Structure formats: C-alpha cells, structure tokens
Amino acid sequence: VQLQACGGGLVQAGGSLRLSCAASGRTFSSYVMGWFRQAPGKDREFVATITWSGTYTYYADSVKGRFTISRDNAKNTVYLQMNNLKPEDTAVYYCAARTQTYGTYEYWGQGTLVTVSS
C-alpha cells in the first residue's frame, strides 16, 4: 500500500488542523492505521491508531481529548483531527499502516509538517 499524507501547515496555539492520509494499493480496510510524529531533535512517537473498521481507537496521553483519529474506508482515507493545538505539537506527522492486530507498522507515508506558533 502507498500512503500520502497532507493537511499540515502553520497554525496558532489553540487552533485546529485536520490531517488526511490517502491510501492506494491493497484493500484499505485490511489495514490498521496509525499516526506518528517526530519533533525536531526527538524520536518519532506514537500519536493515535484506529482498527480496521474504526471500532477501536487509541491515543497517546499527550493528545488524548484533543485529537481524534477516524477513517473512511470507502474513500481509502484516514484522518487526524487536531484541536486545541499546542506549540509542543509541532512535528512532522506520518501516517502508517499494518496488517496485524499488533506489531510494527509495515508501510509509511512521507510526512506532513505541522507548526504551532505560540
């Protein structure tokens, strides 16, 4: 599967952005989807994940209550709605896909930059 993320940009603290990740290739609904981010000088970290049909979602504590992951299998797209953004959310955001319930993500998108100004 090939993943293409978009929707990043510059936003003031307290603002919102919605990231999208479009998938092509194998059946999108066969993948667990996730969002990760990497801030300058830091390791990549988990942000959120959503199961195949969207029944279950999981979030990093740092974004819980502010970010929402969702998917539209008819459009082969996963979203990350980010509200009440903080400067510490500044990072390159990546979408990823895996076929197994647990384990490593096998496929990665190219990343989209989110910058939150204070």
Structure description:
With 118 residues, this protein is mostly beta strands. The protein contains no helices and eleven strands. The strands form two sheets. Strands 2, 4, 5, 6, 9, 10 and 11 form a seven-stranded mixed beta sheet that branches. The mean pLDDT is 95.
What does the secondary structure layout of this molecule look like, with pairings?
Layout: E1 2-6, E2 9-12, E3 17-24, E4 32-38, E5 45-50, E6 57-59, E7 67-72, E8 77-82, E9 91-98, E10 107-108, E11 112-117
Parallel strand pairs: 2-11
Antiparallel strand pairs: 1-3, 3-8, 4-5, 4-9, 5-6, 7-8, 9-10, 9-11
Give the fraction of residues assigned to helices.
under 10%
Beta-strand content bin: over 45%
**C-alpha end-to-end distance:** 37 Å
Can you count the helices?
0
List low-confidence stretches.
Answer: none
Average pLDDT works out at 95
Tell me the total number of β-strands.
11
Largest β sheet strand count, sense and barrel closure? 7 strands, mixed
Assign the structural class, choosing from mainly alpha, mainly beta, alpha/beta, alpha+beta, or little secondary structure. mainly beta
The string of secondary-structure elements, in order, is: EEEEEEEEEEE
Task: Give the radius of gyration.
Answer: 13 Å
